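Example record

The entry below shows one chain as it appears in the dataset: sequence first, then structure tokens.
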Amino acid sequence: MEPYRFPFEKLDVWQDSRELVRLTYASVKSFPGSEKFGLTSQITRAAVSVASNIAEGTSRATAKDQAHFSQLAYGSLMELCCQFILAKDLGLISEDNYNDLRKDILKVSNKLNALRQYQLNNIAK
């Protein structure tokens, strides 16, 4: 018997953000130790924040609160995008790795925007 799945675990956008966390951690493994408390920490925290805010938002009772957490997740996603741009500029990740991450960020971004729009449309209902 499959264990109970919470509502956030059923969302494609959460599944994709979870994969983005995995890819993020794989990408920063090669960062120098001097970045452990700098960019590495910032990047991993932003990636985890995306998935966590999606999960937290599903627990909220109103569509307005849910949309707020989707917006927070989007903000963390844009922070992550910025940090990967900086990592590329600093030579910490390759152009190919950056492009792959950018595609995954865009995928999550599109799904987050669709989720937030759905939530906002349900505020009046």
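Notes for this example: Helices lie at 12-28, 39-58, 63-89, 95-121. The chain has one domain: 7-121.
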